[in-house]
Design a protein that fits this description.
Strand content: 25-35%
Number of helices: 6
Mean pLDDT: 88
CATH class: Mainly Beta
Number of domains: 1
Shape: globular
Structural class: alpha+beta
Largest sheet: 5 strands, mixed, barrel
CATH topology: OB fold (Dihydrolipoamide Acetyltransferase, E2P)
Low-confidence stretches: none
Distance between the termini: 21 Å
Length: 161
């Protein structure tokens, strides 16, 4: 288990180095965020999917990526900020081929990201940001703690309490 974890950390370090090699910064600190997850939900409150399509609320939100689902040329990610969670939909032709390729190569669960775009409601009824802009704000070098089982190693649990 320890070797697996170390390999995961090394892979994330390699991704951060690749961002630097391409002239980027894996930890930029100049991004302004205008919305929170709860404010975005309030902006769409009581509106149907058709109403949001006709008169979309444009938001920009930053948060930790707590879930990531890739589907080839599109991806869904769930961003969690201090007020809640909001889903984002990234599409290759929505944020650009180059930006989407960078996203696929460098972004992991646990990273902190920023997305901007209009709100819409998916077929499953989930409020979602249709990303027109995406930016990685912080590359996480360590994986998130296991959600369901907690910290299993007793020695580590006592050291980190």
């Amino acid at each position: 288990m320890k070797d697996e974890w170390n390999e995961l950390v090394l892979e994330r370090i390699r991704k951060a180095e690749a961002i630097r090699r391409d002239g980027g910064n894996p930890y930029p600190n100049d991004q302004r965020v205008g919305w929170t997850a709860s404010a975005a939900r309030k902006a769409a409150e009581g509106k149907s999917g058709e109403e949001l399509d006709r008169n979309p609320a444009r938001v920009d939100i930053a948060g930790r990526i707590v879930a990531l689902r890739n589907f080839g040329k599109a991806a869904f990610l769930v961003l969690a900020d201090r007020t809640g969670r909001l889903q984002a939909y990234l599409k290759e032709d929505g944020i650009g081929e180059e930006a989407y390729s960078r996203f696929r190569e460098t972004v992991d669960v646990g990273d902190i990201a920023w997305v901007g775009g209009p709100l819409f409601i998916t077929r499953t009824g989930e409020l979602t940001v249709r990303a027109e802009r995406f930016r990685l704000l912080s590359k996480s070098l360590r994986p998130l703690p296991e959600k369901w089982h907690g910290l299993a190693d007793v020695e580590t649990r006592y050291r980190q309490r």
